[in-house]
Sequence to fold (317 residues):
Amino acid sequence: MLPSSYHSLGEHFKLASHDELSKFLAAAERRAYKQALFAMRDETVALDIVQDSMLKLAEKYGSKPENELPMLFQRILQNTIRDHCRRQKVRSKWVSLMSSLVPQHEEADYEPLDSLQDEDNNSQGLAPDASFEQSQLIALIEEALIILPARQREAFLLRYWEDMDTTETAAIMGCTEGSVKTHCSRATHSLAAILRKKGVHLP
Amino acid sequence: MKEEELSHENIKQLLNRSVAQLERPTLTRLHHAREQALARYDACCGESVSARAGHVIWHAFDARHKSRWWATTLLVATILFSATVYWNQNAKSDTADVDIAILTGELPIHFYVD
Fold:
């Protein structure tokens, strides 16, 4: 359910056209991909999630008013991410059950902050120092976001990256505004702690 | 408080820069996904013309216009009631005319033929 404050009188009748939907998706797709990537840690799965979300939006809600699209898309995206996580969990349970006799990888020892170097970036060596430092900082922040608990990351990204207010974030996440504030506060503290450990002090 | 807001703003800017540096294959795949979604939208669009009309009508009477909704309902009910009463009275006067005609012996010939 969308909060009533989100609707403004008169804008109700501006239903999204093909061009408006196209423009909206073009603006949202990259951030959506990153959000899915932070949650799933797999590029292919993240792309699948974004594609599924776009298709659902276009098919079921494409004719909704233009101003409702960002919230609807975010809600669909977050639900799709959660569905994929659940499916992955079930699948990994079965896999671990079936391969209980075979020695397993130590996944618990995985520490994303150990692999901060952006190995795929071929231009790293040629880039100026400032640019290099910035890409390192971006990598640090992204790795820190990956480590965050899912709900904290979701709340943090919706509030501070997607610029949703507390009411909208609560509607998307299906929780109370108080929970959103708690998640955001915890996420901010966790991020600050993780980044501080790596010697990064944001101004 | 000011410092915290700045931090969030910085993180936002850095994430936006990161998004701007996505690799070509990823961007191509996203573009294809968008194209598919728009094709799906076009396919559904024709079917949903009536749905759109319904949507508009429904939203014309949303929570903010409940009074207008009730006023319209009341108006329609009043018109229906008035029409029913008028029709009943007409029917009554019709039979009264026939009764009078029978009593005075001036009933038109087609009543006997029928």
In short: Chain A has seven helices and no strands. The CA atoms of residues 33 and 48 of chain A lie 9 Å apart. Residues 1-13 of chain A have pLDDT under 50 and may be disordered.
